[in-house]
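Re: weekly structure request thread

Next one in the queue (380 aa):
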Amino acid sequence: MIYLDNAATTKPAASVTQAIISCLTEDYGNPSSLHRVGLQAQLHIDQTRKIIADSLKTEKETILFTSGATESNNLALHGIAGSYGKRKKRIISSAVEHASVKSTLDALEEQGFEVIRIFPGKDQRFHAEDFIQAINEQTCLISMMYTENETGRLLPVSDVFRSVKKKYPAIITHCDAVQAYMKYPINIRNLQADLLSLSAHKIHGAKGTGALYIRKNIRLMPIMTGGKQEKSIRPGTEAVPLIAGFGEAVQLMQKTISDRLMQTEQKKTYLLNLLSAMPDIAINSDTDSRFSSPYILNFSVKGIRSEIMLHYLESKEIYVSSGSACSKGVNSGVLHAYGIPDQIADCAIRVSFSEDTTEQELSALIQAIQSGLHELIRKK
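Done, posted below.
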């Protein structure tokens, strides 16, 4: 099996699985219980909170656990809208956000908020000044993803947030950093983000847990009611085994960020060179490493719709995606936002790398695509 869909989810690391099993079989207490078994469970939460905080160069009190990045994004946007949006109704975001941000902004728009969606320029890149020029005195929030999840393009988050905080310090800044966390070193103070959404299963943790960084003194209106867990902002018994696995994944990945970044860039370049030699391929990602993550490469096999090529590759036990997994195969509109023609976007394939990806696997992918071009076009 050749797995090239790591932007959708990663395989849990062996040590992560062990940490989860340990909490399921040994430290299985409710962390809200006051006895020793409950305390031991709470210690796992506290330890992971500190691990994540340290990785962002912040204090552990700023980390709140959720069920995943979708909940983190919902909590960030609805929470800020509820706390800061009574008088200021303008929200600025990019036109290529993840579905959990995009749909939440749609819902806020229906509630009376003005949502300004910034599109990339003719060069298919986002420019900081476009976001900054959209700000007015009614703006309460700017939400931008760090790494766009379908093509891997990098958004100018730091440039925008720094300018915003300098000119309009009261505006809240939120970043969906799911595809960037543990792939790039993130210093939360340098980034100037008030809120940052994270996910465990993108970094070899388990599905079902994530985190939201909340800068001190930022007020979020809860979107759930219940107990006193997570400062009453996110009530409900914490998923201790998954959180413990999250902490183990961060510890594991943090050791090799720089090395993996360099190695993955080499793998992406290798695949790009192979694809560029094929006349039936269109590259949809930015090929300049300054503006694109090495972990994602999007391209189109001209004349063959995405789902057809995807299932052909699956028959060869090669697993890729046609875009965001959260879109369930439905065109998300991201490629259209970059000005990519529909006939090319309809044929898009996303390859996403991990440290386990090899050049041999990428060569096998190319061979399978070439075979697919021959067989599938011949059948037409």
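The chain has two domains: 2-9+257-375, 14-254. The mean pLDDT is 95.
Next request, please.
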